[in-house]
Amino acid sequence: MARLTSRRPVLRVRDGVRVTRPDVLAAEEPLEIRISGTPLAVTMRTPGADWDLVHGFLATEGVIRGSGDIRTLRYCDSVDDTGRNTYNISDVELAEGVAPPDASVTRNFYTTSSCGICGKASIDAVTVASPYDLHADQTPVSLDVILRLPDKLREAQEVFDKTGGLHAAGIFSPAGRLLVAREDVGRHNAVDKAIGAMVREDRLPLIGCILMVSGRASFELTQKALLAGIPTLAAVSAPSSLAADLADEAGMTLIGFVRGSGCNVYTGQSRIS
């Protein structure tokens, strides 16, 4: 398996003092996902939890709904110029009866296929594709629980402690218990990895659960939460306008700027207790 981090010399300048020293960087390598040998998507990711990433990606693109929809998952032979296996190509064999994805599916399928028309078309595409009704999940969420989540997620970021360069996503129970946390150079990959870990345990839909992300809440992350049946999405930064529109349409509670003693609740305020 490829390394999660790498070291390289840097010139460190502090208060006019220059020192050459090694620094630790987060690894970034491509992962190609194939379905029965046919390339489906390539994502730049931090190696590690690759099977979670594949399960989460396929679930949040509407290809699978549970671990039983995958018959086999393996690394293909992909070697570098030294003959070492890079573990950067994965191949999925879907279970019998599971329809293969349309050839147009990519990582940004919903956002790219319809954003040229209008935001409403993008929202309709996602809500129609989701098998879960978040309106029916009215599990209350304590504001005190929400405000503690950033610190809990930060405590789970082992690679961030070494590099300072990774996004994180954590899935929490309604009471604030951490169920899974994942890190990656891509915020969408971190979310896919966290959701994928739950897919592999056949935990979808994630009724009452909270998805906490370390950055902003984009349309894409809101889409992923919806397709995993997560009713509450919280972020330390701001949501986009389209993310708020999608959350409102889907019946999701969307919370931004979760910092210190405060936050902004953009949609689904009725869940907050």
Describe the protein in words:
The structure is a single chain. α1 packs across α6 and α3 packs across α8. With 273 residues, this protein is α/β, with parallel strands linked by helices. It contains eight helices and twelve strands. The chain has a domain of 140 residues: Cytidine Deaminase, domain 2, CATH 3.40.140.
List keywords for this structure.
273 residues; alpha/beta; Cytidine Deaminase, domain 2; six-stranded mixed beta sheet; four-stranded mixed beta sheet; flat
Give a topology summary.
Blueprint: E1 5-14, E2 17-26, E3 29-35, E4 38-45, H1 50-60, E5 70-75, E6 89-94, H2 109-114, H3 119-129, H4 143-155, H5 158-163, E7 167-172, E8 178-184, H6 187-200, E9 210-213, H7 219-227, E10 232-235, H8 241-250, E11 253-259, E12 262-267
Parallel strand pairs: 3-6, 9-10, 10-11
Antiparallel strand pairs: 1-2, 3-4, 5-6, 7-8, 7-9, 11-12
